[in-house]
Write a structure and sequence with these properties.
The chain is an alpha+beta fold. It has 2 helices and 6 strands; from the N terminus they run βαββββαβ. The strands form 2 sheets. A 4-stranded antiparallel beta sheet has the order 2-5-1-6, with helices on one face. It starts with a strand and ends in a 17-residue tail after the last strand.
């Protein structure tokens, strides 16, 4: 099994969620996060003073899927989240050794 963590622009969340739902991915965890990469933040004006906003609002989506769903899931996420502009985000894929559903004690793909 694999864990996909993706960081995207907040306004793309609904597009990504709907696209994943269309391919049968319904379970996910979503967190509001802040960060920056090459985008490096921006400057804003507040009460006449200019200041730098280093950390930009982003959304982090975490999904655990079976190995066979990986390529389709990655393609779906990247297509739905892409705007073509700097700051579109990143996708990270890691190996998941074990998953246990607490309620039923099911393990592996059955627990996902």
């Amino acid at each position: 099994m694999k864990k996909i963590e993706t960081i995207i622009k907040p306004f793309k969340l609904d597009d990504v969620r709907e696209a994943l739902s269309e391919i049968g991915i319904t379970g996910m965890t979503v967190s509001e996060v802040k960060g920056f990469g090459r985008q490096k933040g921006h400057t804003e004006l507040y009460r006449g003073a200019e200041y730098v906003v280093d950390f930009l609002p982003k959304v982090k989506i975490e999904i655990v899927i079976s190995d066979g769903q990986l390529d389709q899931c990655l393609e779906t996420i990247t297509n739905a989240a892409r705007t073509g502009k700097i700051g579109d985000g990143k996708v990270f894929v890691t190996e998941v050794e074990r998953v246990i559903r607490i309620r039923t004690s099911e393990e592996g793909d059955d627990a996902v």
